[in-house]
């Protein structure tokens, strides 16, 4: 239950991404700068956190042991996650991007067969948790209901350039996160892992920044400031909270799916944020029904996770006959 609350809190800070990315695009900022600046701003904050926790030597050691692993899965988990999201913001409205991003709930569940779990002396391929998948699909129905009132505004290019990149991101983010957890096996804490992945993804952000400088020029002061807010809120606070929650349940696919499903609450925070900051009117009735379905799905996830935890505790404490 604590991990789910951490996931919901992370979603609150993640919501800033969708609101400000769209704001930057509407004001003429390039997605190249929106994506790269976020990770540039993350490095100093994470560096000082890890430094004062005396975690730098261990993190550097891990980076040196398997640099290629760090480069590959950081590129997947951070690069193929955030670059497509900011790119999509240039072609689709905020409600579409934040709504489609919730497909990560289902994506995360479907990734289970890509991972192995050690049982005794054997490595067994994990199975898709069917109950978690079913509950995630219920949440997905709610997300679809939220999008229905605005579907008539979509066109072919918006679907291709605004939806496809987000779908790629929904698989890349949980895949990169889980692969790094699998590789590290708990040897680094959350702050060390996020800093290590941020550093390992730097080649991509430097390339994008250089390309942006030569093609669209330097970013405006407004885009720099908004990217700074996104970097701190979403990049440092939200990512750390979310990774902390997933770290705690990394060996249980059902609980991991429940934590990843908390990202569905992002769209609720996005709608509230846009109403407050951008003066967007209250969503139509069907969209509000969708919000209710999402909340219902989250309650089901919490209930199922609690029941599973109770069963595990009972079986572990039951005296031998």
What does this structure look like?
The protein is mainly α and 321 residues long. It has one domain. The protein has 14 helices and two strands. The chain has a two-stranded antiparallel ribbon with strand order 1-2. The chain is globular, with a radius of gyration of 20 Å. The chain starts with a helix and ends with a helix. The mean pLDDT is 82.
Q: What is this entry, summarized?
A:
Keywords: Membrane, Transmembrane, Transmembrane helix. With 321 residues, this protein is mainly alpha-helical. 78% of the residues lie in helices and 2% in strands.
List the main descriptive attributes of the protein structure presented here.
321 residues; mainly alpha
> Tally of extended strands?
2
Main β-sheet description: 2 strands, antiparallel
**Can you tell me the number of structural domains?**
1
**Helicity, as a percent range:** over 70%
Distance linking N and C termini: 31 Å
The backbone outline, from C-alpha atoms, is globular
Radius of gyration: 20 Å
> Which residues sit in consecutive blocks of at least 5 with pLDDT less than 50?
none
What is the count of DSSP helices, taking H or I runs of 4+ residues?
Answer: 14
Q: What portion of the residues fall into strands of 2 or more residues? A: under 5%
Mean pLDDT: 82
Order of helices and strands: HHHHHHEEHHHHHHHH
Q: Within the largest sheet, what's the order of strands?
A: 1-2
What is the SS-derived class?
mainly alpha
